[in-house]
Amino acid sequence: MNLQQMIRVINKCSMPLMCTCIILAVPPSIFAFDTKTIPPTDSTAGTVFPGEKHLTNIRKLTFGGQNAEAYFNADASQIIFQSARDGHDCDAIYRMNADGSSVRMVSNGKGATTCPFIQPDGKAITYASTHLGGDSCPPKPDMSRGYVWALYPTYDIFKADPDGSNIVRLTSTDGYDAEAVYSFDGKKIIFTSVRTGDLELFTMDPDGKNVEQITNMPGYDGGAWFSWDGKWICWRASRPEGDALKEYQDLLKQGLIRPSKLEIYVMNLADRKPIRLTDNGAANFAPFFHPDGKRVIYSSNMNDPQKRNFDLYMVDIATKKIEQITFNATFDGFPMFSPDGTKLVFGSNRNGSVPHETNIFIADWHD
Known about the structure:
The protein is built from two helices and 26 strands.
């Protein structure tokens, strides 16, 4: 799923959402800074809003356009992300140093790309791309039935050298394959696919072999991450019933999904019993494990009656107690901790030079 599409729609329409990969339309007024908060004069700094007690020293790493899904490499010295820039009409994959320097494109500039990740040993990258279906961007989804997200059937998962060369196709089934990340020991990749007729989670070896289905409930399952020890996964999922299930299945046949209601789940891979961590009927997405393994950070519009503003939240796995992390009046999403838990990288509309601009930020994290 292309989260960038979600951001653009969120920024232009009336309904927001959630690759790892959906979002809503927001009126320009919602992107105005809190008048009680003075934006920093340093162009690389980011505003810390009242209540953001876990974050300090926020630094802006990108400047302009739509940038999202920024993820650390194993030692948090590098970041890979997707961005529409350099004249490209749809997202390409870029790498940069963790201080924002040395930005370079590592996809081939064809089709649309999403959900990038750096292999833990640093020897390869993965991402999803539609380039085998054509050099141009895929057509935008038809919004005549409301806010929907396109599941392009030409999305497949690819592996490449760190500089983007030597592209190897890892998935080749008909339909959508995307939202892939490695386990932190580098032994497995988890991803989302429609190959069985529903959007389910699968694992495979780094070479694309030994594919195994992980989920099997009706509804969308996606955006999964492994825990740091590889024993658990967290992900976002819909569990529609009745008329909602029929609508979901009808849209899926058209290569579409309406991602307005997603909840956060975790599951131990040994017993495979899903545990639901949220139950608010909102668009909860982009979950990621805190390094302590006891908490999951994610993005949600749960506290906005109009469902347009997304903030970061943290949920305790044992108690299901939720703490709000960011208090920005626009969009915050796609959080990822550094392995030692001292840094947080995320996407945000804060401190944009123009309305609806999404940039990558890095902050010091304090528990």
